[in-house]
Specification:
Elements (H helix, E strand, L loop, with lengths): L1 H27 L7 H17 L4 H24 L5 H20 L3 E3 L12 H19 L3 H11 L1 H6 L4 H27 L1 E3 L6 H16 L4 H23 L9 H44 L9
Antiparallel strand pairs: 1-2
Length: about 300
């Protein structure tokens, strides 16, 4: 039990980079990017094949980052320059990346068992924690720069930011590129963690990323960028812990992953609704009590209060 929870926390830290990437498109840019399912595998494929060919793991991860950024760049160009719907642009690139990833790997499955591994130098949780915290802090700093603020404004109100002369095409392309670069890096780290890569490992990653974002925001909120990014990192960890615990329920196994993920997302979406409903009821009750107190105090003062109108 303890071992599975430790493993869940470790994988949550590795998936945190992917969740932060999804946060950029889903929350900051309000861009429905499905490229994630392909770019996650792209990062794993690049990191794996380069390491097998003798490159240091850290160099392989840097190239994985660049490969993901390139995939995001193409999605952004299809949307902004090609005038293709954002959702469709992501689907097109996701499909294209399936074949591209096969070309990179040469075959559907690759193993890293007898090669250098980035986790040879430190435990998974140490490298995962360093990577997640570093990226979180760098994003916090980036979103405070002029370009970062323009990117946030593009997602909030694209027409308004256009009226100020900002190039929304550039900010959209940049945001989608950074997002998929982080997703690809997460894929590379997961490949090193599991010591293998397969061409279907990215399927459903967008759902996992959204689940991490939604869970984090439902529990920790997102009033500021600092709070939102830390909520995403913690959300990724909590998601993996919940998933690990769910798999221990009698009758559940790995083939139920999609069902478990769907139930987790539904639960995370319902939490804010329940909280808001309870808060509204509490506020209404408080206002009713204040009115009753006012009526009572008025009556005691010898005045009459007409409440018929």
């Amino acid at each position: 039990m303890l071992y599975s929870l430790v493993g869940a926390v470790e994988s949550g830290l590795l998936y945190a980079l992917m969740a932060l990437g999804v946060f950029i498109t889903y929350r900051v840019l309000d861009f429905p990017d499905l490229t994630v399912d392909g770019s996650f595998t792209t990062g794993a494929a690049i990191a794996t094949i380069m390491t097998i060919n003798g490159y240091p793991p850290i160099v392989s991860l840097l190239f994985a980052f660049c490969g993901g950024a390139l995939a995001g760049l193409m999605t952004g160009l299809l949307h902004t320059k090609g005038k293709i719907n954002g959702l469709l642009s992501g689907i097109i690139m996701m499909i294209a990346l399936y074949s591209i990833n096969l070309r990179i790997m040469g075959k559907p499955n690759l193993s890293l068992r007898d090669t250098a591994n980035i986790f040879d130098t430190a435990p998974v949780w140490v490298i995962g924690l360093i990577a997640a915290v570093s990226v979180k802090l760098l994003l916090d700093l980036f979103f405070k720069t002029n370009i970062g603020l323009s990117l946030r404004a593009t997602g909030d109100n694209q027409r308004m930011i256009k009226s100020f002369g900002a190039n929304t095409h550039m900010t959209t392309i940049l945001g989608v590129s950074i997002s998929n670069a982080l997703v690809a890096t997460s894929g590379g780290l997961l490949a090193f963690s599991t010591t293998q890569t397969n061409n279907s490992m990215g399927v459903g990653m967008i759902v996992i990323g959204l689940a991490s974002v939604i869970i984090g925001e439902a529990i920790f909120g997102r009033k500021t960028i600092f709070r939102a990014t830390i909520a995403v990192v913690l959300g990724a960890i909590i998601y993996r812990v919940i998933y690990a615990l769910a798999l221990r329920i009698p009758g559940m196994d790995a083939q139920d992953m999609k069902l478990i993920t769907a139930l987790i997302i539904i639960f995370a979406l319902i939490i804010p609704t329940i909280k808001n409903t309870m808060q509204e009821k509490k506020t209404s009750r408080k206002r009713a009590e204040e009115v009753i107190q006012q009526v009572n105090s008025t009556s005691k003062g010898g005045n009459t209060l007409d409440v018929t109108h």
